[in-house]
Amino acid sequence: MGNEQLEELRGQLDDVNEKLVELMNERAHLAQEIGRVKSSQGMNRFDPVRERKMLDMIQEKNQGPFETGTLQHLFKQIFKASLELQEDDHRKALLVSRKKHPEDTIVDINGTKLGGGEQHLIAGPCSVESYEQVDAVAKELKAQGLTLMRGGAYKPRTSPYDFQGLGEEGLKILKAISEKYGLSVISEIVTPGDIEKAVEYLDVIQIGARNMQNFELLKAAGSVNKPVLLKRGLSATIEEFINAAEYIHSKGNGNIILCERGIRTYEKATRNTLDISAVPILKQETHLPVFVDVTHSTGRRDLLLPTAKAALAVGADGVMTEVHPDPAVALSDSAQQMDFPQFSEFMNQLELSGLYKSKKTATK
Ligand code: PRE
Ligand code: MN
């Protein structure tokens, strides 16, 4: 008898649950719709005034047996879930999101295809110091089968008294050497007004970690027809990083390469903490090629090889590292740049690991 009554009551509860599920999803649809309207009007998704009104309504209408505080607590959870749904929808609507564009974006740099399945290396000196220095590095990279060379002309340094780079003169050196060796060159630009000029000299414009949220610079880079390598900010979340890429894409330039370069944590054993899991997350959430800068993330020459292996193993489209003819006298980052024998060993070991396929013969 008692059991029949229990079954009957549970049956009724199941019906109510079913209706609640339907109602919750009806509500979720409305919240999504509201989210879209707010997004199109540039409004904040979180609206505490609106939430307060709804909580007051509960107080006014509640006849028990639930206490008003209990219901308000439950509703607060519903608001939170609705907000998350709106944020999810927003993320999926981004131009750089995989939801919006499921296929991988392949950034073609004079025939070297980044993001197309083959993994590539970008290497070169931290700073462009002289024609002879870049010339020597370019020769070495060429011998190792690389097609992409980096080199800093504008150096945003922690101290204003440190070497600030050769500026436009550095860009000219890069251009001359790129033509001499048939290498593509990547260099950081720090001022929106220099972007137009950079287009003439460079094959890829880099936006550095310190400028990841320099929105005017991002918009300027988004307005030109030149691939952009965007580095993750020192303390930027993955979401902020993706939004920074969206700034570039929103202006029409979809040729973007993301570069994880370590984040600030309490750990002091390395210069920054390489967030290796950011690589598969960025690959899942966006359709852009993802690189890992092993030099600046670790700040340690002895960690370049293991972190490069990790990056390639975890699915990065390539690795970026620094090479200098004589790191001991380099004008910047002397502790972590590789000299030529070290670079050659680095390349050999990467190839031996089976994680990297040498392009030596392909570029002869
Ligand atoms: C909603 C969601 C989040 C806001 O903080 C306030 C309310 C809700 O779930 O009720 C919907 C909504 O976005 C809104 O009414 O503006
Ligand atoms: Mn450097």
TrEMBL record:
Task: Fetch the InterPro entries from UniProt.
Answer: Aldolase_TIM (IPR013785), Chorismate_mutase_GmP-bac (IPR010954), Class-I_DAHP_synthase (IPR052899), CM_dom_sf (IPR036979), CM_II_prokaryot (IPR002701), DAHP1/KDSA (IPR006218), DAHP_syn_2 (IPR006268)
Matches recorded under SUPFAM superfamilies? Aldolase
The coiled-coil regions, if any, are 6-33
- Which SMART domains does this UniProt record tie to the protein? CM_2
Domain Chorismate mutase: residue ranges:
1-90
Q: Name one Pfam family in it.
A: DAHP_synth_1
Signal peptide from the UniProt entry: none
Q: What is its EC number?
A: 2.5.1.54, 5.4.99.5
Report the Gene3D superfamilies cross-referenced here. Aldolase class I, Chorismate mutase
Q: Does the keyword Lyase apply?
A: no
What PROSITE patterns would the database entry show?
CHORISMATE_MUT_2
Put simply, this protein is called Chorismate mutase I
- The organism is Salisediminibacterium beveridgei
